[in-house]
Specification:
alpha/beta; single chain; six-stranded parallel sheet; binds flavin mononucleotide; transport; Flavodoxin/NO_synth; Rossmann fold; 37% helix
Amino acid sequence: MAEITLISGSTLGGAEYVAEHLAEKLEDAGFTTQTLHGPLLEDLPLSGTWLVITSTHGAGDLPDNLQPFYDDLDAQRPDLSNVRFGAIGIGSREYDTFCGAIDKIETLMKGCGAKTVGETLRINVLDHDIPEDPAEEWVGSWINLLKNEQ
Ligand SMILES: Cc1cc2nc3c(=O)[nH]c(=O)nc-3n(C[C@H](O)[C@H](O)[C@H](O)COP(=O)(O)O)c2cc1C
């Protein structure tokens, strides 16, 4: 089955744990995965399926380890019409800019022609001590969508 590239952006490690947990679930479902924490654009295949998981820091900003990816995407605007992607944001409702980072990435990726699969999940850490739990539930539905599209 298809390979899925998991991309995480994190400052404190939470989004990385979620990415690793979801990679296991995807492997259990028969996909192959590669998980990249804070990759550069040049590290990524410009086709296939991506799952982007990022927290938000600053005031609606990307984590430092994913900012170079975003900046390169914005500067180079590669053709992503052969990329389909799922998106998960992790943030806190305490901030007006709740899950601002995933919103920015999603907007930019769509602007480059990438297609979303499924609704973006926004996890409020005030409601979920263990963000892996809502992420795992979401990925079950996402897997069904991917399999139906194949
Ligand atoms: C300094 C600081 C700024 C933050 N700013 C935002 C924000 O603008 N929007 C948001 O939704 N969450 C914000 N958060 C909450 C984090 O996204 C949340 O704690 C998340 O679980 C961190 O995940 P990580 O461990 O992957 O970095 C902020 C947290 C900190 C410590």
